[in-house]
From TrEMBL:
It comes from Salinicoccus kekensis. Belongs to the glutamate synthase family. GO terms for biological process: glutamate biosynthetic process. This is Glutamate synthase domain-containing protein 2. InterPro entries: Aldolase_TIM, GltB, Glu_synthdom, YerD. GO terms for molecular function: glutamate synthase activity. CDD domains: GltS_FMN. It comes from the Bacteria. Keywords: Membrane, Transmembrane, Transmembrane helix. The chain crosses the membrane at residues 12-31.
Length: 534
């Protein structure tokens, strides 16, 4: 008992001494370590104190995103753009109060409204069948907490009518792909995204209906198939999923993929807006499952070529596309980044003369960016979508083959107004990648290539993925798609047309920072002018 009393007597002092001594010992150790290291000048000259700089640098993006950046600031998306996606996915709504936060002094595109907009009853919407989903309802919003609950809901799907549906390969394929919605998921591979994210996307898109899921160049996984969503299989220069062990194209593997009921179309990827180069996947992301799907070596970093080795000219590429279409019986398109307009015109001319080519062309703007790439390529190679899209549309019209080819636009088109502007500029369909990532939980941590995504979206790390609950996130995907489609009809009505498929260049105006306005036609004429006339 005496020993216990003694321990009890001195225990508080011992705890206090330890709590003071331990931090001091640690600080002394770090001081000595910083003073002796030779790598960082700031730490050598200011031991310990210099670490404040590196800590601030490390958490700087989070501080700017949540505390210091204004609502309209931030790249690649502002806080408002991010919140718009979250709101659409979680609450299936796009309502705002007290007016727009857009800076109307800046230059940008605007939708030309009519004085006599279309009534809802005049719109060509197919809402005959409702979509069963879940959405959140806010009960009370306090300073430190938000009380809300999730409830079942039936929402309008906002499908196009059958006669307005977009059809890929209508006159060229044994099995055309008919779409009653204009918005789908852009290419995001399993491996770049984890299995939970891919599964949630697949299941959510399937419930929304009228849409599609682009597999990315990493091949088709069980997770893509999990929801029974319509798939557009992308084939990149690495030929993942349709290659032999030696890395050559396998017609046998292609036939297997083409025979799958869920696969509705194929997309040949020549380039991506974020990376006009081949794909990149860090070895730490290449699990045995991913290696099996792609027919590559597990645990090893993969860099696919920046182009197809065999198809180095348009005639060769088009012959390949024709053979794919004949063997598979399904639409075949190609994904490009626009930069060399002369080469683009050569491509269109060959399409005209040979009567060959893709059923659709996906135009990815230089501002695209889900994949890992190099800074110089992401920042400066390839034209942004709002410049590239009307150029391709105009060339196809000039050569009289626009009716043969559907155009899909991609590049930060994550809200209905942006998508509507792209459709008016010539797009038939819209591809979205990062918007769908946000819908399943992405917080824009910008560590997609490191396998350390804190919310379990862009990672194959099983521990990190535990935070992503598929049964929760899949409905946010459904809500996001239906909300986007509703927004497109909203814009169409304001422009005076009864379907977003009828939006045209005449519905778009561009205002510069001095208040002057111009149409898309004016911008195209300026691009056509010879350099010496400038």
């Amino acid at each position: 008992m005496g020993k216990i009393r003694t321990i009890t007597k001195y225990l508080p002092s011992a705890i206090m001494t330890t709590s003071i001594a331990t931090p001091l010992i640690y600080m002394a150790y770090m001081y000595q370590k910083d003073d002796r290291q030779q790598q960082h000048a700031i730490l050598r000259n200011f031991p310990l104190l210099g670490r404040v700089r590196y800590i601030s640098e490390h958490v700087g993006p989070e501080l700017r995103q949540y505390l210091f950046a204004e609502d309209n600031e931030g790249e690649p998306f502002s806080r408002l753009q991010f919140q718009n996606v979250v709101k659409a996915g979680k609450y299936n709504e796009r309502l705002v109060g007290f007016g727009s936060d857009r800076n109307f002094e800046e230059e940008g595109y605007f939708i030309r409204n009519t004085l006599f907009p279309k009534l809802l009853t005049e719109m060509r919407i197919d809402n005959t069948e409702k979509t069963n989903t879940y959405k959140y309802v806010v009960d009370n919003e306090g300073l430190f907490s938000r009380k809300e609950h999730r409830e079942e809901a039936q929402v309008d799907p906002y499908f196009l009518r059958d006669e307005d549906a977009i059809v890929l390969g209508e006159k060229t394929c044994r099995q055309p792909f008919r779409l009653k919605g204009q918005v789908g998921m852009s290419g995001m591979s399993y491996g770049a995204l984890g299995e939970r994210a891919i599964t949630a996307l697949s299941r959510g898109l399937a419930i929304a209906g009228g849409t599609w899921m682009n597999t990315g160049e990493g091949g088709i996984s069980d997770h893509h198939l999990a929801g029974n969503a319509d798939l557009m299989m992308q084939i990149g220069p690495g030929l993942f999923g349709v290659r032999t062990p030696a890395g050559e194209f396998s017609w046998e593997a292609f036939r297997e993929k083409a025979a799958m009921k869920q696969v509705k179309a194929f997309e040949i990827k020549l380039a991506q807006g974020a990376k006009t180069r081949g794909g990149h996947l860090e070895g730490q992301k290449v699990t045995e499952e991913i290696a099996r799907i792609r027919l590559i070596e597990s645990g090893k970093t993969v860099n696919s070529p920046n182009r197809f080795e065999e198809y180095d000219s348009f005639p060769k590429l088009f012959d390949f596309i024709e053979e794919l279409r004949e063997v598979g019986g399904k639409p075949v398109g190609m994904k490009i980044v626009v930069g060399d307009i002369e080469s683009l015109e050569e491509m269109v001319q060959i399409m005209k003369e040979s009567n060959k080519g893709p059923d659709f062309i996906t135009i990815d703007g230089g501002e695209g960016g889900t994949g890992a790439t190099y800074q110089e390529l992401a920042d400066s190679v390839g034209l942004p979508i709002m410049t590239a899209l009307p150029i391709v549309d105009e060339l196809l019209r000039e050569y009289g083959i626009r009716d043969r080819v559907k155009l899909i636009a991609s590049g930060k088109l994550i809200t209905p107004d942006k998508a509507a502007i792209a459709i008016a500029m010539g797009a038939d369909l819209i591809h979205i990648a990062r918007g769908f990532m946000i819908s399943v939980g992405c917080i824009m941590a910008e560590v997609c290539h490191t396998n350390t995504c804190p919310v379990g979206v862009a990672t194959t790390d099983q521990k990190l993925q535990t935070g992503l609950i598929v049964d929760e996130k899949l409905y946010r995907v459904t809500n996001y798609v239906t909300s986007l489609r509703a927004g497109l009809f909203n814009v169409a009505a304001a422009a005076g047309v009864d379907s977003p498929t009828k939006l045209e260049r005449k519905h778009i105006l561009y205002k510069d920072n001095q208040g002057r306005i111009s149409g898309v036609e004016n911008m195209l004429e300026k691009l056509k002018r010879p350099v010496e006339d400038e």
